[in-house]
Amino acid sequence: MRRLGDALKQLRKRNGWTLADVSQKSGLSISALSKVQNGQMSLTYDKLVSLSRGLGVDVTYFFAPEPAGQPRAGGGSGTVVMGRRSIHRQGDGIHVSTPVYDHVYPAAELSRKMMAPIYAEPKARTLEEFGPLMRHPGEEYTIVLDGRVEVQTEFYAPVILERGEGIYIDSMMGHAYLAASDDYCRVLSVCTASDVEVEAALTGHGDDHEG
Fold first, then answer.
1. Number of domains observed in the structure of the chain
2. Predicted pLDDT at 208
3. Range of the domain at 195
4. What is the value of pTM for the model shown?
5. Does a structural domain hold residue 26?
6. The CATH number of the domain where 192 resides is what?
7. For residues 207 and 33, what is the distance between their CA atoms, to the nearest angstrom?
8. Would you say residue 185 lies in a domain?
9. Three-state SS for 87?
């Protein structure tokens, strides 16, 4: 599996970009990019989106053995059936750990997905632990698989979701998923993206844990 830092180095070298260039394109700080490149820090969903979108690659480029560069299906009139399929089994997917979430990205071998499914284990229990609310393009539906989860959003009062309950939100609205029980907490989020995100890519938090 391609390491995020190694992939970033190769992409920079291929295009002759400095870290400052990548910072300008993605909106991530130079210090954060340096930590990522040196394997000292991971990125969460919104920063992975920013990085892949800014550099014009699919997020799978950063993790797959080969860069993702499959052409978009079609090109002519009529409907093209791509027949894509990806089965997720226990232990599969790309695992990314950050201070506020542990993420698993299934179907990582598929590029240019129309949606991004994400398994996440909330770690933070308060907004003080979590830091700034996350936001990213598109909309998302999140369902609680295990435990109880508190959902904090920018324009609404906090809500507690029990196992089997879900919430649909505008992902550009600041949001956070917090562990609300002592039990193991896990959610499944399915995120959409605009045509721009689909074309560029679908899949930190402060300089020390960008997200």
1. 1
2. 40
3. 4-68+93-200
4. 0.63
5. yes
6. 2.60.120.10
7. 9
8. yes
9. coil
What is the structure's pLDDT at 50?
85
Q: Is residue 83 part of a domain?
A: no
Conformational region of residue 105, where left means phi above 0, alpha means psi within -120 to 50, and beta covers everything else: beta
With a cut of 50, list the residues of the chain below it in pLDDT: 1, 66-77, 194-211
Q: What are the tokens at 28?
A: 């991530």
Q: Is the dihedral of CA 140, 120, 94, 2 positive or negative?
A: positive
What is residue 80's predicted lDDT score, i.e. its pLDDT?
Answer: 53
Give the type of residue at 63: F
Residue with tokens 């938090």: 205
Q: Is there a domain that residue 196 lies in? A: yes
Buried b (16+ CB within 10 A) or exposed e, 156-194: eeeeebebeeebebebeeebbbbbbeeeebbbbbebbbe
pLDDT at 127: 95
**CB crowding 13-24: b at 16 or more within 10 Å, else e:** eeeebebeebbe
User: What is the per-residue pLDDT for 20?
Assistant: 92
